[in-house]
Amino acid sequence: MTTSPVERAADHFVSALALWRVERGMTKKQLAARMGFDPSYVSHVEGRRHKPTEDFARRAEAVLAAGGAIWQRFQEYDELRHARGPVLHRDPPVPAQWMPPGTGLIVEQEVAELTYTDGAYRCVIRRALYNAGMEPVTRYLVKIAVDRYPHDPQGSNRHHRRHPLSFEEMDLRAVAGEGAATEPMQWRLKLDRDAAKEVWLLFANDQGQFPLYPGERTTIEYAYTVGEEKWGQWFQRAVRLPTRNLTVRLDFPVEFEPQVWGVETSLAAEVPVRTPLERHNDARRAVFEWSTDAPLLNARYRLEWRFRGQAAPTSSDEGVPKPRRNGHELRASQRMRGIGIVQRGADLLRQRSRHFQLPREESAARDAISGLRTTLDRLEALHDFSKGVGLAAPQIGLAVAAAVVRPPERGAEPVILLNPRVVDESSETDEQYEGCLSFFDYRGLVVRPLRVDVEHARYDGTRVITSFEQAMARLVSHEIDHLDGRLYVDRMVPGANLVPVEEYRRTGQPWSY
């Protein structure tokens, strides 16, 4: 017996709820009590006798600290439930993020700013705190870490052993409060390592103590400096407390020609940040800003950059520059991951993508295509693909049926594919080596038809059939496979060997026909 997509999504929500409840060692009654519900309520939801509500999902996520997994499953269910028609009742919006009693500190807003000036980075973190707990807060834990070569752990460890981070150079300073009520904060060391420090910021100084009592709010700000010889080109914020808003700013000299991208890492996957970065130039400075009103607990948000105005390596594979860190060449997959492309092993690459309901979801479809084109622009600003290049939505963390393919010919318009499916193909085939941005360390021989006819949608919902031949047939087929949860290795002859990219001999050459 088949089930509807809504029922499957509800099952996935219930499975995630039960998994995390067991992981946290709670019975159904214990969870219900922590959430503020009747003792039998969780049992009814897990038994599919009650439909989950937004309030229920938020409370379950908060109590079980599931890193966004429960909330994500609810959003998938809720989206499908309301896509079926306008007659369904929708739960009233939850006015504020619910927190379980005794939650403790809540970060109502964090603004993290990193500024590069005269060979050093100055980091300033400002957090608006609310004590939702039942005890006064007398200290706040701060973690500071550097990683000169983030894609080369061994090289980075060697570097920091020779050049350890010191408190003297950091010039760590912290204050609490605002305006005339600002108080300097003393700090106490907890951990001291070559590349990492942990300190307790104390709600105290030589003039006395000023604890943050239950129900009170305050703002703390701390700042430190690290020389560029110890700071890699990345800035990461880890969400360790319930946080309602997170904003990150990067401030660089304009003449460095900075290029910035972002990655979100959660318990589920590593994907590009879900909201765009904004840039504005101020005098001789380039300021990048990224913000989210829904940071996931235990998630990490990482902005990375490169300075195009500085000298860079020029050797290439498939036109891909090979950057080095401390003399060690990065793997091709690391370079792809570095610009936000989801890598092989992520569950999202093995799932069938959801089709858009057009024209009702035209805005969402345009957003997905815009994200794909932005990522391709970022990729092609770094690399040159002589065979053409394509990118599917799952590769940037979106489980929707959208892809963009750029032909091998210079200046040719990219092909936009929405809800595509192959309706016919030629019996004549050929075998060529393929690579994949999500599996870029290898190449493999794949048999493909020399012509495919693809039915796909326009934004207004009308459908067209386009015929693609030779290289474009291969590129388009490759991206449609992604939307079906398939990788090119699935199409290789059983027992065929993958060729490491270092041994691939056809770099920079178009496919021959």
Keywords summarizing the entry:
alpha+beta, 22% helix, single chain, four-stranded antiparallel sheet, 30 strands, 33% strand, 513 residues, globular
Question: Overview of this structure, please?
Answer:
This protein has 513 residues and is α+β, with helices and mostly antiparallel strands. It has ten helices and 30 strands. The strands form nine sheets. The protein has an eight-stranded mixed sheet, with no helix packed on it. It has a four-stranded antiparallel sheet with strand order 11-17-13-14, with no helix packed on it. The longest helix has 21 residues, at 362-382. The two termini are 47 Å apart. Mean pLDDT is 85; it is low at 87-95 and 310-329.
Summarize, please.
The chain has ten helices and 30 strands. The chain has 513 residues and is an alpha+beta fold.
Give the distance, in angstroms, between the N- and C-terminal Cα atoms.
47 Å
Overall pLDDT confidence: 85
Structural class by secondary-structure content: alpha+beta
How helical, in percent, are the residues?
10-25%
Oligomeric status: single chain
Topology of this protein?
Blueprint: H1 5-23, H2 28-35, H3 41-46, H4 54-64, H5 69-83, E1 105-117, E2 120-131, E3 139-145, H6 153-162, H7 167-170, E4 173-176, E5 183-184, E6 187-192, E7 196-202, E8 204-205, E9 208-209, E10 217-227, E11 234-238, E12 246-253, E13 258-265, E14 270-272, E15 278-282, E16 285-292, E17 300-307, E18 316-317, E19 320-321, E20 324-325, E21 328-329, H8 332-338, H9 362-382, E22 389-392, E23 402-406, E24 415-418, E25 421-425, E26 429-434, E27 442-449, E28 451-457, E29 463-469, H10 470-483, E30 499-500
Parallel strand pairs: 1-12
Antiparallel strand pairs: 1-2, 2-10, 3-7, 4-5, 4-10, 6-7, 8-9, 11-17, 12-16, 13-14, 13-17, 15-16, 18-19, 20-21, 22-23, 23-24, 25-28, 26-27, 27-30, 28-29
